[in-house]
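Render Homeobox-leucine zipper protein in 3D.
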Amino acid sequence: MKRSLGSSDSLGALMSICPNTEEHSPRNNAHVYSREFQSMLNDLDEEGCVEESGGHVTEKKRRLSGDQVKALEKNFEVENKLEPERKVKLAQELGLQPRQVAVWFQNRRARWKTKQLERDYGVLKANYDSLKHNFDAIQHDNEALLKEIRELKAKLNEENTESNVSVKEEIILAESEEKGH
Protein backbone atom coordinates (compact mmCIF):
# COMPACT_ATOMS: atom_id res chain seq x y z
CA MET A 1 0.00 0.00 0.00
CA LYS A 2 1.45 3.34 -0.99
CA ARG A 3 1.31 6.33 1.29
CA SER A 4 1.15 9.89 0.05
CA LEU A 5 4.05 12.04 1.16
CA GLY A 6 1.64 14.72 2.31
CA SER A 7 -0.43 12.39 4.48
CA SER A 8 1.46 13.36 7.62
CA ASP A 9 2.13 16.99 6.67
CA SER A 10 -0.33 19.75 7.38
CA LEU A 11 -2.46 20.99 4.53
CA GLY A 12 -1.01 24.48 4.85
CA ALA A 13 2.54 23.23 4.39
CA LEU A 14 1.55 21.29 1.31
CA MET A 15 -0.32 24.21 -0.16
CA SER A 16 2.76 26.39 0.20
CA ILE A 17 4.97 23.99 -1.81
CA CYS A 18 2.48 22.36 -4.20
CA PRO A 19 1.97 23.55 -7.77
CA ASN A 20 1.48 27.29 -7.85
CA THR A 21 3.92 28.46 -10.52
CA GLU A 22 4.13 28.02 -14.25
CA GLU A 23 7.37 25.98 -14.07
CA HIS A 24 7.12 22.47 -15.51
CA SER A 25 8.57 19.38 -13.90
CA PRO A 26 11.39 17.77 -15.84
CA ARG A 27 9.88 14.40 -14.83
CA ASN A 28 6.53 14.96 -16.50
CA ASN A 29 5.61 18.01 -18.50
CA ALA A 30 1.97 17.67 -17.42
CA HIS A 31 2.82 18.62 -13.77
CA VAL A 32 3.65 22.07 -12.43
CA TYR A 33 5.54 22.29 -9.12
CA SER A 34 7.15 25.06 -7.11
CA ARG A 35 10.96 25.06 -6.94
CA GLU A 36 10.91 23.96 -3.29
CA PHE A 37 8.57 21.01 -3.98
CA GLN A 38 10.51 19.98 -7.10
CA SER A 39 13.72 20.04 -5.07
CA MET A 40 12.15 17.68 -2.53
CA LEU A 41 11.02 15.35 -5.33
CA ASN A 42 14.46 15.31 -6.90
CA ASP A 43 16.08 14.52 -3.53
CA LEU A 44 13.65 11.67 -2.96
CA ASP A 45 14.23 10.35 -6.47
CA GLU A 46 17.95 10.24 -5.83
CA GLU A 47 17.31 8.21 -2.67
CA GLY A 48 15.04 5.84 -4.62
CA CYS A 49 12.10 6.54 -2.32
CA VAL A 50 9.50 7.91 -4.72
CA GLU A 51 7.20 6.52 -7.35
CA GLU A 52 4.84 8.67 -9.30
CA SER A 53 1.52 7.15 -10.35
CA GLY A 54 -1.42 9.03 -11.75
CA GLY A 55 0.01 12.37 -10.65
CA HIS A 56 0.37 11.29 -6.99
CA VAL A 57 3.79 11.05 -5.44
CA THR A 58 4.09 8.10 -3.06
CA GLU A 59 6.76 6.33 -1.09
CA LYS A 60 8.02 2.95 -2.29
CA LYS A 61 7.13 0.12 0.05
CA ARG A 62 10.21 -0.96 1.95
CA ARG A 63 10.53 -4.69 2.63
CA LEU A 64 11.85 -5.88 5.96
CA SER A 65 14.90 -8.11 6.01
CA GLY A 66 14.70 -11.68 7.27
CA ASP A 67 16.53 -10.74 10.47
CA GLN A 68 14.15 -7.86 11.11
CA VAL A 69 11.14 -10.14 10.64
CA LYS A 70 12.64 -12.79 12.95
CA ALA A 71 13.28 -10.18 15.65
CA LEU A 72 9.75 -8.81 15.28
CA GLU A 73 8.29 -12.35 15.44
CA LYS A 74 10.24 -13.12 18.62
CA ASN A 75 8.99 -9.90 20.20
CA PHE A 76 5.45 -10.70 19.08
CA GLU A 77 5.63 -14.11 20.76
CA VAL A 78 6.64 -12.44 24.04
CA GLU A 79 3.87 -9.83 23.89
CA ASN A 80 1.57 -9.11 20.97
CA LYS A 81 0.73 -5.61 22.21
CA LEU A 82 3.29 -2.88 21.75
CA GLU A 83 3.98 -0.27 24.42
CA PRO A 84 5.28 3.08 23.07
CA GLU A 85 8.67 2.73 24.76
CA ARG A 86 9.10 -0.80 23.48
CA LYS A 87 8.09 0.29 19.97
CA VAL A 88 10.75 3.04 19.89
CA LYS A 89 13.43 0.74 21.34
CA LEU A 90 12.61 -2.02 18.86
CA ALA A 91 12.59 0.42 15.95
CA GLN A 92 16.02 1.73 16.95
CA GLU A 93 17.43 -1.78 17.34
CA LEU A 94 16.15 -2.83 13.92
CA GLY A 95 16.82 0.41 12.06
CA LEU A 96 13.14 0.98 11.33
CA GLN A 97 10.71 3.80 11.89
CA PRO A 98 8.49 3.35 14.98
CA ARG A 99 5.45 3.57 12.67
CA GLN A 100 6.77 0.61 10.64
CA VAL A 101 7.07 -1.46 13.82
CA ALA A 102 3.57 -0.44 14.94
CA VAL A 103 2.05 -1.31 11.54
CA TRP A 104 3.90 -4.64 11.47
CA PHE A 105 2.51 -5.53 14.91
CA GLN A 106 -0.98 -4.46 13.87
CA ASN A 107 -0.83 -6.59 10.72
CA ARG A 108 0.63 -9.52 12.65
CA ARG A 109 -2.17 -9.35 15.22
CA ALA A 110 -4.70 -9.41 12.38
CA ARG A 111 -3.01 -12.50 10.86
CA TRP A 112 -2.85 -14.13 14.30
CA LYS A 113 -6.55 -13.48 14.87
CA THR A 114 -7.42 -14.97 11.48
CA LYS A 115 -5.34 -18.08 12.22
CA GLN A 116 -6.93 -18.36 15.66
CA LEU A 117 -10.39 -18.20 14.10
CA GLU A 118 -9.39 -20.91 11.64
CA ARG A 119 -8.13 -23.11 14.50
CA ASP A 120 -11.29 -22.49 16.52
CA TYR A 121 -13.42 -23.31 13.49
CA GLY A 122 -11.47 -26.54 12.97
CA VAL A 123 -12.06 -27.61 16.58
CA LEU A 124 -15.76 -26.71 16.43
CA LYS A 125 -16.16 -28.53 13.10
CA ALA A 126 -14.49 -31.66 14.48
CA ASN A 127 -16.76 -31.53 17.56
CA TYR A 128 -19.81 -31.03 15.37
CA ASP A 129 -18.84 -33.93 13.11
CA SER A 130 -18.32 -36.19 16.13
CA LEU A 131 -21.64 -35.18 17.67
CA LYS A 132 -23.42 -35.65 14.34
CA HIS A 133 -21.92 -39.12 13.98
CA ASN A 134 -22.99 -40.02 17.54
CA PHE A 135 -26.47 -38.59 16.96
CA ASP A 136 -26.89 -40.59 13.75
CA ALA A 137 -25.74 -43.79 15.51
CA ILE A 138 -28.14 -43.20 18.42
CA GLN A 139 -30.97 -42.40 16.00
CA HIS A 140 -30.26 -45.65 14.12
CA ASP A 141 -30.23 -47.62 17.39
CA ASN A 142 -33.48 -45.91 18.45
CA GLU A 143 -35.17 -46.86 15.17
CA ALA A 144 -33.99 -50.48 15.57
CA LEU A 145 -35.35 -50.59 19.13
CA LEU A 146 -38.71 -49.14 18.05
CA LYS A 147 -38.94 -51.77 15.31
CA GLU A 148 -38.18 -54.49 17.85
CA ILE A 149 -40.88 -53.11 20.18
CA ARG A 150 -43.44 -53.18 17.35
CA GLU A 151 -42.48 -56.78 16.49
CA LEU A 152 -42.75 -57.87 20.12
CA LYS A 153 -46.14 -56.14 20.52
CA ALA A 154 -47.39 -57.84 17.36
CA LYS A 155 -46.16 -61.20 18.65
CA LEU A 156 -47.78 -60.55 22.04
CA ASN A 157 -51.07 -59.59 20.39
CA GLU A 158 -50.87 -62.74 18.26
CA GLU A 159 -50.26 -64.90 21.32
CA ASN A 160 -53.08 -63.17 23.19
CA THR A 161 -55.42 -63.74 20.25
CA GLU A 162 -54.45 -67.41 20.08
CA SER A 163 -54.82 -67.69 23.83
CA ASN A 164 -58.27 -66.09 23.71
CA VAL A 165 -59.32 -68.46 20.92
CA SER A 166 -58.15 -71.48 22.94
CA VAL A 167 -59.99 -70.26 26.03
CA LYS A 168 -63.16 -69.76 23.98
CA GLU A 169 -62.76 -73.21 22.43
CA GLU A 170 -62.35 -74.74 25.88
CA ILE A 171 -65.45 -72.94 27.11
CA ILE A 172 -67.47 -74.10 24.11
CA LEU A 173 -66.19 -77.66 24.55
CA ALA A 174 -66.96 -77.57 28.24
CA GLU A 175 -70.48 -76.29 27.59
CA SER A 176 -71.16 -78.91 24.94
CA GLU A 177 -69.91 -81.66 27.20
CA GLU A 178 -72.17 -80.47 29.95
CA LYS A 179 -75.15 -80.51 27.64
CA GLY A 180 -74.28 -83.89 26.32
CA HIS A 181 -74.19 -85.54 29.73
